[in-house]
């Protein structure tokens, strides 16, 4: 990634520029010691003087809060200026000062709107932090004077806590009562700037010791930079949390989110007092001490998919190259490129007002979609559909540009939607609820909710939908706050609830394969591949056998799975290096065979490869596919003799439906087996199945509904209770016991009769 | 204290290239060390030759420093500083220092801005001054020239009155054409001759050059030929060289062999010598022993003789007389041979252990008659030599 810098030439401030802020994606406000508020338009490259402040107003901090940032609307609601005389000023759209409040003793050093825009905080040289309402009424004073000036303060991801500097310390303070502030020593020198990112919750701080440091939201160090020559005077996160900019004396540096420097420039600007990113995260503005305003946009963003790679080389140019054919196409766009996504043979480029969908096979004739709102936060691609997350809605589009649906849920706030918390599968969409972090909303492509939202016991971090198989095999994987990886079925089967089970623990990150139901995850420092995660619902004991763990020292500390396309897992190390790790290709072939039902080929493959994990996968796949012979040989190969014996027992059953039901039972689907039996009118067997799985109530329910074998159920229940030596506690059974007479001999005869009847049928 | 002032001040100092980081917290409490350092630095920046008091250890020094700096700035920079505030060395001092720093920063900025668009004009000012200086010098020189020229002209004009007549006369004096012609012709011939001369000289030079070239060429070819010959000679192997080399190798081998043999011989000789020395030592040892024995015997004999002589006089109490006599005669003969030495022998008994005396003793032994010596050698270890001798002696001298 790189920055391309520019300085508007014609008009300059007359004195030091101290603050900048974006109005919308094309307009920047700046003000400085010359008491003038200027507006710079990036499209027309002209500047305009908005207003002049009174002589005694020296702005030190300036923050525009806009509720609706769009290209065509000038959306600023209110501007907040903190000045050196201890006051803050609220400005209206025209730049007229609407309200001035005496806030601090000494200069007000910080004024910042909360992310929700309902309040703002100010901090000053007197060491106080004050929270004000939207209209400028004092709400609380969470930090009282300590005599140490607060040079910088900022809001946390939710508007409930904020971070401020205190000399060499950083303090996270919550607005909720009875929460102890988290205070730690962060730098060797005075901390001048700090920034808290809204999506991943990372903190970056910079100070007079010439270093910038990245912290996670608990205050543990993620990255410590090398020493700079001059103090760090400004820091800003890009809105999507992927990178941040660091300003110092004659220095502008662009870093990725883990702190590694991507780009460094030494413009002749003096100290950069303030840096602000535009809402789309592609441009930034900085206030320079030598009266200039620096504007920059990010180029060199890169996406790749298999052998394809797309890079933004200029503001309006994307170069698409194919490593296999060693050719490249240059795509020119009429407007600035904001987003770039490449997957499933489609390149999607989002500009300020339009979305271009290029098919890889026919790159020069894109499908063009006009954006509804003109600001896209995120683009997600799946095999046949894509999602554009816009300012107020989520749109599901097909690749020919048709809007299919726009799913909605009550707490949807697209601006703070984390890319790792929304997932698009081939036929459904899953997103973590933003109000309740324990809930996942699941929709199908047409925007209809699938079942009820999935709710978990703890907060959910990342989610992911599988990409392979049919819609009924769709799986949802998610990692919760304790870093346990769970998977759940997406489509609830008829009359059954959603199944959720824990796949692994200490999972740092995970990715589904781009075409198959395989999960690659980082557990601690090793890479784990679950060849067939569905196995957890079938036979937990086999889960270990189908998981392959790759230990490698080259992954280093805190690796992260970024891509899993085809047979390659892309891993990003904490220092930003990308590592490609190969995965056995046989797995993909096996999945292909099982999907197409060519079990003979699958068997031959497994015999050739002689891998236990593959055999285990095949065993479960065959059980799911109700292939007795294949399952038998597969189970035999992995020494599961009990399964083999049971399969042989199933084979002896002559009745086809019973056989199928037994296979379902072997696959762990009691409900399915029961449904199969009931469909085929084998009520007795359905009841007996429920009895043998100790599903007493269900057995009784079937029996009472069909008015047969109630007494049989009761008898077996009684025998069971007697064996355990317990008293009947279930009301239903007690009630029926008093009504129905149980004659053991008669029941035995009845059972015998049913068995005979079954034999006759076969 | 204003946050803004401090911020701007640090920025300006950074831009001016102050070598130390000025923190936002540095002036929260009075910090005279830093203030003084910055003040001195700024003044030096203004004028590197500025004379400023740069001590600040004592109160007087500080006052002097602040005052001298303020005076300097007021005089040179037209900047009025509040000395009291500077002395406070806190935020207010920053505001005062900011005045100086601001001036310098503005200059830097203005200069920087000028430099940015075009390169020609900004550096012009300094060049202009030097060119003016040059002009000044030039004009001064010209002025002096004007006066000197004027004086010369005046002198010449003064001469004009005398010269006028001569000029007029010479103008009036008509020249004869023929004379003029002849003179001119002479001049022509003379010049022609000189041309001829130089031409011939040039030709000569060419000729000598050619000859030299030819010589050089000849020498060159000769050198080449010799070079070639040298090469061929170097290439050619003289006859018998192979044989010579072979022989050389052979000789080497032989020489090696010779060396080893000589070494062996030398070693053997050394061995032999050692053996001889050892033998001699042993012999000497034995001789010494025998000598000692002999002496003892002689002493014994002498004692007995004396005893017998005494006993002949008064007491005939004696052992067998015959051997005694024999001994006596032997000793007598010995004594006779070594006249006067008997006493010396007697005295020697006491210094028997002494090594030196032993040596002299052995010398004595060797000095004794050859007969005795050879007898000793011949007898070897045998002690029978003594009785043999004693046996033979009686037969030799018949009393």
Automatic annotation (TrEMBL), chain A:
Recorded superkingdom: Eukaryota
UniProt main location, coarse: other
Subcellular location: Cell projection, Cilium
Biological processes annotated in GO: cilium assembly
Entries under Gene3D superfamilies matching the protein: 1.25.40.470, YVTN repeat-like/Quinoprotein amine dehydrogenase
GO cellular component: cilium; intraciliary transport particle B
Keywords: Cell projection, Cilium
Segments forming domain IFT80 second beta-propeller: 301-586
Pfam families referenced in this protein's UniProt entry, alphabetically: Beta-prop_IFT80_2nd (PF23335), TPR_IFT80_172 (PF23387), WD40 (PF00400)
IFT80/172/WDR35 TPR domain span: 614-759
Identification of the protein by name: Uncharacterized protein
Automatic annotation (TrEMBL), chain B:
Keywords annotated in UniProt: Cell projection, Cilium, Cilium biogenesis/degradation, Coiled coil
Domain of life: Eukaryota
Span list, region Disordered: 338-399
Record keyword Coiled coil present: yes
Pfam families: Cluap1
Compositional bias ranges of the Basic and acidic residues kind: 390-399
UniProt biased composition (Acidic residues): 351-373
The keyword Membrane appears for this protein: no
Coiled coil start-end: 209-236, 268-300
Location relative to the cell: Cell projection, Cilium
Any one GO cellular component localisation term in the record: microtubule organizing center
GO process annotations (BP): cilium assembly
Similarity field: Belongs to the CLUAP1 family.
This protein's name: Clusterin-associated protein 1
Lineage: Eukaryota, Metazoa, Ecdysozoa, Arthropoda, Hexapoda
